[in-house]
Amino acid sequence: MKYLVLTRRTPQFRDDLLGDHYAFLDGLRRAGHLECAGPFTDRSGGAYLLIANSLDEAKHRALADPLHVQGCSNLEILEWDAR
């Protein structure tokens, strides 16, 4: 299944954690769990498309994003019937 992860920056957003965030995404990509990712052009956040067996698995992966763990972003995780 595919899961759309929408990330929105919080007022506590820290640019110095972007390297950790990108490394996290690279790890998901290497493991075959990430189809695509990118920031919104207005710099309010971004989105990425996870591949997982269940919503719980997708949440487990997405909630480990360093930006979320550090309170720098809020996540919305949606099961997506993308074609």
UniProtKB/TrEMBL annotation:
Record domain YCII-related: where: 1-80
Listed Pfam families: YCII (PF03795)
Which family does the record claim for this protein? Belongs to the YciI family.
Q: What's the name of the protein?
A: YCII-related domain-containing protein
Q: What is the lineage of its organism?
A: Bacteria, Pseudomonadati, Pseudomonadota, Alphaproteobacteria, Sphingomonadales
